[in-house]
Write a structure and sequence with these properties.
The complex is a heterodimer of chains A (148) and B (192). Chain A is mainly beta and 148 residues long. In chain A, 7% of the residues lie in helices and 49% in strands. In chain B, the strands form two sheets. In chain B, strands 5-4-3-7-8 form a five-stranded mixed β-sheet, covered by helices on one side. In chain B, strands 1-2 form a two-stranded antiparallel sheet. Chain B is 46% helix and 19% strand. The chains are: A mainly beta (148), B alpha/beta (192).
Chain lengths: 148, 192
């Protein structure tokens, strides 16, 4: 009896952030080559997430980590943040809102075996609105690569 | 009195009536938003057992008879940082009247992060490390800060999800501190 009542109370007062990832397009690549992959992630309206370099040290940064494997992530370029003044912080914070584009440069070793490979990425974000913050969440990103 | 004057007076009276109704509704809405729940509508705050930084188990029921501000917060939460100085002040101001602020550090944090943060903020009230079980008992705490104001009978008198105003907290705290616990209320009623 108690649990549903409390859940109801909490749900009345909030709306959760949700980061929706548009998966990257599959890539055809030759051994020894380098290629660049872009994908977008969209945060629902009314929320912001910390950028990769948040303005304050206590904040949890946005991170994109690609799993180690036959396809090597050489460099991640994070979306350009905006400086947003929020009611709970004296100084503007470096955040992302709405749609953000992530760019990663990959390298394929010369000795890579041909065939399909899926590179797994983990996008970790921590979002807030102007009154509350939400626990960090991780979204998986799948990159299909066809080694030719 | 001319017909025009009568119409004018009627129109003004109607406007005044509408204004009074709207103002009345508005005032009652504000009062309702600031006040605590009526005693009969309050749910029991679930008991829990969590460790403080010394490893000692702290139960909510340890504080029965006191009014409690139960604050779910995290070090990475900006709005939580706004409220913490208020809680420090409330702990100092209302401690002798029977108020306890209890902070539940949430969001998978550990003492290596929480302890330095608490020292830096000069937190003067007990802090325990939260877990999913306790969060679930309270309906699943998603948004931080989430703060429950619990009366002396262990019942939830007020809930804030997200940053609230200091005045709102203070009003609710004053109300739960002013109310005697149930056995005393019953004894007082019998004595009359």
């Amino acid at each position: 009896m108690l649990l549903p009542s409390l859940s109801g109370l909490l749900l009345l007062g909030q709306n959760s952030p949700l980061l929706n990832v548009t998966p990257p397009e599959p890539v055809n690549a030759k051994p020894g080559s380098a290629f660049t992959v872009k994908f977008a992630a969209t945060l629902n309206d009314g929320f912001h997430m910390n950028s990769h370099n948040p303005a304050e040290t206590y904040l949890i940064p946005l991170t994109l980590k690609w799993a180690l494997g036959p396809v090597e992530a050489a460099d991640v370029e994070y979306p350009k943040p905006e400086m947003l003044k929020l009611p709970f912080e004296a100084k503007p914070l470096s955040v992302l809102t709405g749609k953000s584009t992530f760019t990663t440069k990959f390298k394929l070793p010369a000795n890579a075996q041909s065939g399909p490979v899926t590179v797994m990425g983990k996008l970790r974000y921590q979002a807030c609105n102007d009154k509350a913050c939400f626990a960090p969440k991780t979204v998986e990103v799948k990159l299909p690569v066809n080694v030719q | 009195m001319t017909s025009v004057t009568r119409h004018l007076i009627r129109a003004l009276s109607l406007s005044l009536l509408v204004f009074l109704i709207v103002a009345g509704c508005s005032t009652s809405r504000t009062a309702s938003a600031q006040s605590v729940k009526p005693t009969k509508d309050r749910k029991v705050a679930p008991d829990f057992s969590l460790k403080d930084s010394s490893g000692k188990l702290v139960k909510l029921s340890d504080y029965r008879g006191k009014a409690i501000v139960l604050d779910f917060w995290a070090t990475w939460c900006g709005p939580c940082k706004v409220e913490i100085p208020w809680f420090i002040e409330f702990q100092r101001k209302y401690k002798d009247r029977g108020l306890v602020i209890l902070g539940v550090a949430s969001g998978d944090e550990d003492w290596s992060v929480v302890q330095p943060f608490a020292s830096q903020m000069k937190i003067n009230y007990p802090i325990v490390l939260g877990n999913d079980t306790t969060a679930d008992l309270y309906g699943g705490i998603e948004a931080l800060p989430t703060t429950f104001i619990i009366d002396r009978d262990g019942r939830i008198a007020k809930l804030h999800v997200g940053l609230a105003s200091k005045e709102d907290f203070q009003n609710a705290i004053e109300k739960v501190l002013d109310a005697a616990p149930e056995p005393q209320r019953t004894a007082a009623a019998r004595a009359k």
